[in-house]
Amino acid sequence: MVENHKQAADAFWEAWTPEFIKSVEMFAGQTVTIEPGADADTAQTLGSEDSILWQGQVFEREGTGTVWIGTPTAACRALTAGSAEDDAGGEALYRELLRQSFEGAAHILSSGLTPRIVCKRAIEDRGRPLDLALVRSAWMKGPDQGRVPLLLGLESGFAALLVDPPQAVLDAPHKTTPLMDRLVDLELPVAVVLGRAKLQIRDVLKLTAGSLVELDRRAGDFVDIVVHNSVVARGEVVSVGGNYGVRIQEVISRSDRFALQAAASRPPRGAIRPTVN
To answer: Alpha-carbon distance 138 to 115, whole Å?
Structure first.
């Protein structure tokens, strides 16, 4: 059973670390690096850290399992100092970026699994978690600070979520093709579409400052995330350090993308499609 926890920790760490780095950059505007550590003695590690901000995330997949991340409070404040007005705001921002990184990790870990692993609820408890099956330490380094410890704690139920088949899940983050290796660094234009509307030319010419254009979305509906005119995901608009951001809520399947593209390219009813002889 101990070996299962170590394999689960390896899988989670591989999936979560890049998502955490991206979340820090997006929410706090800072670049950090993570150096892997080793499994630590639970009592010794938790007992020696009396100023740790702990956040747990409950994952679900035909059962539940919880993962905890512990970060020194001073490091949390240093990371978010430029994006938050005070310590309380900095802590809230750090917890939000942790939630975002957990969502990303769940998506990666779900590769090849049915049903998928989903995030159910966050546990925001200042007290240290109890009854952890494994604690792993690592080092986080930011541009303006030295190395600080980062702690990963797994409760016993988490390893069971990765079974079926375990090796496929553990190997998933490493599986790439030569073609994909060449493409992963390419940049793609990403657009967020709040809604669409069709107007006659006469109505467009009448537009002035203060004119209202009714879109095909209701207030509260998800927005579309579009890459090269193809809808790839949908999400909700959020505020990120004073800027707008989008929290991904659903990823569009490949077949659904093709269907959306076909519908978008289909001419309106009654329209005449020109032909070339």
So the answer is: 31
CA 243 distance to own-chain centroid: 17
Spell out the domains of the chain, with CATH numbers in brackets: 2-175 (3.40.1550.10), 181-265 (2.30.330.10)
- Contact (CB, 8 A) for 22 and 103: no
pLDDT in tens, 112-154: 787 889 999 999 865 678 788 888 889 998 876 778 889 999 9
Q: What burial letters (b/e) apply to 130-146, b meaning 16+ CB within 10 Å?
A: eebbbbbbbebebeeee
274, two tokens = 């020109």
Going through 91-242 in order, the beta strands assigned E by DSSP cover: 118-124, 132-141, 147-155, 190-193, 223-227, 230-240
Please give the Cα distance from 236 to 234 (Å, whole number). Answer: 7
Cβ atoms of 103 and 20 closer than 8 Å: no
